[in-house]
Design a protein that fits this description.
By secondary structure, this protein is mainly alpha-helical. 50% of the residues lie in helices and 5% in strands. It has two domains: 84 residues, no CATH class; 109 residues, no CATH class. It contains nine helices and four strands, in the order αααααααββααββ. It is elongated, with a radius of gyration of 26 Å.
């Protein structure tokens, strides 16, 4: 479907519609999906309906495959390679991500994350002065200090409906692109990489507490 106009999307239903192969109604598909997402228990009738729905994703594939094979640019080898990847991906999702259990306790130790936080946040704060530390040692992003930073840099930062600085990731990214001074190059940045608000944007603001640093 690459490079072609597919009015009903690039999923299975879109491909079937493109080739004029009958398929289930979108409204029906969504209704059964919501039924499945609802979870157990299912009545015998609901189980039968779910199995029927699942087969609607399988039955048309024979016809669809024959239509694809007739396309001059269709590459069966590439398709089989993609199919193999789907099988491997399913195995990875089933097994999960392997972990080194010898170091997991250290990674989950709040003291370790507090150490990392207390080593990183002060260095960033030297440049921007937008964080404050409470009596317990926790760091917090401060809107008033951020407003002062914007005033010093002459930046008119976008606001939310409540008047607070808009700190959504897309806003941070666009503003850091518009104002390169928000991206600092400090001596503590390894290999000359930029650090600060804009590289990457999610570095700003750093997590205020150790529990949010994972």
């Amino acid at each position: 479907m690459n490079g072609r106009t597919v009015p009903q999307g690039r999923g299975l239903l879109g491909a079937l519609a493109y080739y004029g192969i009958p398929s289930v109604d979108v409204i029906y598909k969504e209704r059964i999906r919501q039924l499945i997402k609802r979870g157990w228990p299912f009545t015998p009738e609901e189980k039968a309906e779910i199995l029927k729905y699942v087969m609607t994703d399988v039955d048309p594939l024979f016809e669809l495959f024959s239509r694809l094979m007739a396309e001059p640019e269709f590459d069966l080898g590439t398709s089989l390679h993609w199919g193999e990847f789907v099988a491997v991906s399913a195995q990875m999702e089933h097994r999960g991500i392997p972990l080194n259990m010898d170091i997991v306790p250290d990674l989950l130790d709040k003291r370790a994350w507090a150490y990392v936080r207390d080593a990183v946040v002060p260095k960033i704060n030297e440049q921007y002065d937008v964080y404050v530390q409470d009596k317990t040692g926790e760091w917090h992003f401060n809107n008033e200090k951020f407003d002062a930073l914007c005033a010093r840099l002459g930046i008119d930062w976008p606001r939310t409906e409540t008047g607070k600085p808009d700190l959504r990731q897309k806003t941070l990214k666009s503003m850091c692109q518009a104002f390169p001074e928000l991206v600092a190059r400090e001596s503590h940045a390894p290999h000359g990489h930029a650090r600060g608000f804009g590289h990457p944007p999610k570095n700003f603001p750093p997590p205020p507490g150790s529990s949010k640093m994972v």
